[in-house]
Design brief:
Layout: E1 3-10, E2 13-20, E3 23-31, E4 41-50, E5 55-61, E6 64-69, E7 95-100, E8 112-113, H1 116-119, H2 132-135, E9 142-145, H3 150-158, E10 165-168, H4 171-182, E11 191-194, H5 200-203, H6 207-213, E12 218-220, E13 226-231, E14 235-241, H7 251-272, E15 277-282, H8 289-301, E16 310-315, E17 321-325, H9 332-336, H10 346-363, E18 369-373, H11 375-380, H12 384-397, E19 401-405, E20 414-418
Parallel strand pairs: 1-10, 10-11, 14-15, 18-19
Antiparallel strand pairs: 1-2, 2-3, 4-5, 4-7, 4-9, 5-6, 7-8, 12-13, 13-14, 15-17, 16-17, 18-20
Length: 420
């Protein structure tokens, strides 16, 4: 298998892609508005103890309250011991050293653990030394060990998968990648390539086309059917359809074949779109016991359904396959889409326009630009973070950019004029 990582940097946004045999299998968006806390160690302060949840809420700074369950607040052997209730371990106002297991998403804070030595990720390529006496002189909340940034975390998660090639379109990112690789003991070092934005190295794998597919809820199957993904705030529903292809076998066997292919596709899409939490899959009906046994056997062989992050509960009373996937980070939809819609947010469109603009500017260096955008995009570009991204683009290219509003343009449309 050929595994490659593509790092595409644009004004204010970084897109990270993992490809296996040319297929996009993992996609991550990193913006200035996102901040990774995973694997960061914090001296927090308990702000609330909830006996009903048997958990505590811990302030770790920057307005973030994390969730510390009783089982993560103590060390015990689940085979022999019964965990103490949270009220016997911590109290409101108590300082406590914790590590973040996940990023905050929506209105929920990150999950935390107090078992630092046992659970700290060993692949960070650095030794962690915490002076317990020095902690007594620190006023919580405070950051004790800085978490890796999104790029470093992505590389650390995948560089043990025998990556052959890392393609980067920004020189400063090449140095970051080299620094991470230097801290790891890899048997096979990946080839690191720098390419200009818009280089055919990014186009030959149809990266933009594969990223665009993420915006569509419907994924077509080779068998002729499809799956439709509907993400809600607390649950995800996935519907399997047979399509209009004529079955060459019995209806039962035909439905079984589509169900197996659909589940393989669902497994890949959960990883790609970073869908987590409670998931219900509405498969095509199969009636025979033998067919159900074959389906269960197929599920047990699908890698994405057989790891520590995913648990398959089986079929509910309504006939839906119930699956849960551990949540570590925000789903892609939270950054890219409007809530409960498959429409790009204005900020997503702005970042795409700025990236495409940067590609055009690199091919027409030295000439001032005039860009016309729709009213919604014009207003969005005036916001602090996007305004800063636009200003940074002008500094990097030494090119003046004038942005004007054009009411005749659709939301995603823009026009570029080169000034003489």
């Amino acid at each position: 298998m050929v595994s490659q990582i593509f790092i595409r940097v644009g004004p204010g946004e970084r897109r990270l892609s993992l490809l296996e045999n040319g297929k996009l299998v993992r996609a991550v968006v990193d913006r200035e508005t996102t901040h990774n806390v995973i694997d960061g160690i914090y001296l927090g302060r308990v702000c609330k103890v909830n006996k009903m949840l048997d958990a505590a809420f811990v302030d770790i700074g920057n307005g973030i309250q994390g969730f510390l369950s009783a089982t993560q607040a103590q060390i015990f052997d689940p085979a022999k011991d019964k965990p103490k209730p949270i009220s016997k371990i911590v109290f409101e106002g108590k300082p406590i050293l914790v590590r973040a297991l996940s990023n905050p998403f929506g209105e929920k804070g990150p999950k935390l653990t107090a078992n630092i030595d046992k659970s700290f990720s060993p692949n960070l390529g650095r030794k962690i030394k915490i002076d317990k006496k020095a902690l007594d002189e620190i006023t919580p909340p405070a950051e004790i060990v800085c978490p890796p940034d999104t790029l470093e975390l992505f590389l650390l998660e995948h560089l043990d998968q025998d990556i052959q090639r890392i393609c980067v379109n920004e020189r400063s990112e090449v140095q970051k990648v080299q620094k991470v690789i230097k801290g790891l003991e890899l048997d096979n070092l990946p080839q690191i390539e720098f390419v200009q934005a818009g280089d055919e190295s990014f186009d030959q794998e149809d990266l933009e086309g594969q990223w665009d597919d993420i915006f569509y809820p419907t994924i077509n199957l080779v068998s002729g059917g499809n799956i439709i993904i509907e993400e809600l705030s607390t649950v995800t529903f996935i519907d399997v359809n047979s399509g209009d292809r004529f079955a060459q076998v019995s209806k039962e066997e035909f439905n079984l074949q589509i169900n197996i292919e659909a589940l393989e596709t669902v497994s890949a899409q959960l990883r790609l779109r970073n869908i987590s939490g409670q998931i219900f899959i509405d498969l095509l009906p199969i009636k025979r016991k033998k067919s159900r046994e074959i389906l269960q056997e197929a599920i047990s062989r699908i890698p994405g359904f057989n790891n520590e992050d995913v648990k398959v509960f089986g079929f509910s009373r309504l006939g839906l396959l119930e699956v849960t996937r551990r949540r570590r980070d925000r789903p892609l939809s939270e950054l890219l889409f409007k809530p409960y819609e498959r429409q790009k947010t204005l900020s997503t469109i702005c970042y795409e326009i700025l990236y495409n603009l940067k590609k055009e500017m690199l091919s027409n260096q030295g000439k001032p630009y005039s860009v016309s955008v729709s009213p919604g995009i014009f207003s969005e570009l005036k916001k602090d973070i996007l305004q800063g991204a636009l200003e940074q683009l002008q500094k990097e290219t030494f090119i003046e950019i004038k942005v004007t509003e054009d009411p005749t343009l659709e939301t995603e449309e823009y026009k570029v004029d080169l000034k003489n």
